[in-house]
Amino acid sequence: MPLSRFAGLRLLRHSAGLGLVVFAGCTVGPDYQSPEIRTPSVFHAPGEKPAAAASAATNAPASAAALAKWWTLMNDATLSELVDRAIAGNHDLRIARARTREARALRGATRSGRYPTVDLGAGADRRRESEKLDGGSFSGAEGDTTLFESGLDASWEIDVFGGVQRGIEAADADLGASIESERDVLVSLTAETALTYTELRGLQRRLFVVNESIRAQRESVGLIDSRFRAGLSSELQVSQSRSQLAIRESLIPGLQYSIRASIHRLGVLLGQHPAELISMLDIPGPIPTGPGEIPLGLPSDLLLRRPDLRRAERQLAAATARIGVETADLYPKFSLTGRFGFAAGEFSEQFDMNARNWSFGPAVRWRLFDRSEIRNQIAAAGARQEQALLFYEQSVLIALEEVENTVVRFHQEQARRQALVGAVVASQRAVDLATDRFTAEIDDYLNVLDGQKTLYEAQDQLARSELDSATAIVAVYKALGGGWTDERVIESQTTTPAVDDPSAPIPPNGESAGG
Predict the structure, then answer these.
(1) What are the pLDDT digits (tens) for 162-173?
(2) Which CATH number among 1.20.1600.10, 3.40.630.40, 3.90.700.10, 3.40.50.2000 corresponds to the domain 26-115+161-331+371-494?
(3) Given the DSSP bridges, would you call strands 356-365 and 333-344 parallel, antiparallel or unpaired?
């Protein structure tokens, strides 16, 4: 039976009262606040400077632009080109970007939960009622009947206790975590590209050292052979010199394999076939060098610079919001439902005003007998939030450890390289003197062999140290979180996302809404 005008007015009055309840509602669950993380006041990096001066230099503010493209400080145009190409074509980074787009779309879908849903439907039904019910058709119609229907169905769950709002907060935080994951992949990609490239140049340098030692050893073999034919050297000396030559030559295949493997790895990092970079990189080049000092900034800066820490903080925010999502199930859920449409037995009468029908009213649903399950779900959400907090705190400690370790390695490797430079100079001088004394028949050839072996080992160690120095620089910049542009951070910090805009950026530290 259709509603009377009086009943309709009374229903609207009750609905208005329900609207007041909405405005008086609160958002259940804890409001998120970024945890206070204690960090040291300075990094304790070793150095040759006095302690105060070294501390001041180490903890000087790091340039945002320098951190964003730190590989340009390595003074190698080829490296810069490879990193730029890796950023454009790497598959891991493209996967991370797709995951960010997925998270952004899911956030938009979650945000739509605060608005009413409206469905449009239409249909036609041909039926015949049984004539054997109560002596005839209980519908009052005889024979076959046809019914044409069309209309709008609407429903709106009123977020009285903030469960939907908490879900939106969690989705916002999930998107922020996905953005930071993408940035973390970018940091790892730039570092891995630089590491692989420096390893390639280091291997090429070591191959050059081996070839130079082989050339020198061949000259020695020729000298010993000449002296042996002249009766001035023994066959033992000839065998010793040839043995040293064979040992040097045996090192070449392994180094050549490692060189090709590094080139193949770089090709994959750039999103290309492994062998596509051979023509570009097969020609040896110098090992990249970097700055003698790296400004580290303050330990607290890592909380803003390292994407993995920013991601852990966003995951903590999402876990906190989901406590409110579970808590909202303790309370009743209010909704408004309505329908407006037309129904007629003839299609020509489908949109006649006398064929209209409508319904409207509030509804309530309350899980009164599931409270034990709900409270356990709340406890589980609280435990997940605690795990996220502990993971965040542990991640900060690990980040601090990485910076301290990489800086120690950087300084110690520089000192080691300087010592090896002196060792190479001294070893070369010893070989020259031993050769002169052997030629003058003052000393045995064994001294020449020992001197050549020591010289080669010193040269190889120096090449390794130059490589380790370069990779130590890369490790420091990676530990600092370098490799992504500050413009995106500035944009995300200064742009407030619109409620209805699923493409709007999310602030890196998030924000929560309380009631």
Answers:
(1) 888 999 999 999
(2) 1.20.1600.10
(3) antiparallel
